[in-house]
């Protein structure tokens, strides 16, 4: 099953992102076959922007990650 690994700014986003992504995928695209894996928490916007490439590489190595 293809999977998405969200990269988020903080703890609140870590909880909300999977719910939001599932809702969009199901309601807008009728996609029920995509798993949302545990998000990667960057620990703040400045850290995320500074080290985005590192976080994307980290997320990409997770098994099943497609996006």
Written account of the structure:
This protein has 67 residues and is mostly helical. 51% of the residues lie in helices and 12% in strands. The strands form two sheets. A two-stranded parallel ribbon has the order 1-3. The radius of gyration is 12 Å and the shape is globular. The mean pLDDT is 93.
Query: How many angstroms separate the termini?
Result: 12 Å
Put simply, the count of helices is 3
Summarize the biggest pleated sheet: 2 strands, parallel
Radius of gyration, whole Å: 12 Å
What helical percentage do the residues reach?
A: 40-55%
Report mean pLDDT, rounded to a whole number.
Answer: 93
Beta strands, count: 4
Give the strand order of the largest sheet, numbering strands 1, 2, ... along the chain.
1-3
Unreliable spans are none
């Amino acid at each position: 099953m293809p999977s998405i690994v969200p990269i988020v700014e903080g703890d609140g986003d870590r909880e909300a992102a999977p719910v939001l992504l599932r809702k969009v995928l199901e309601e807008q695209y009728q996609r029920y076959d995509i798993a949302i894996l545990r998000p990667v928490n960057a620990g703040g916007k400045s850290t995320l922007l500074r080290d985005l490439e590192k976080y994307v590489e980290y997320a990409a190595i997770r098994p099943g990650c497609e996006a």
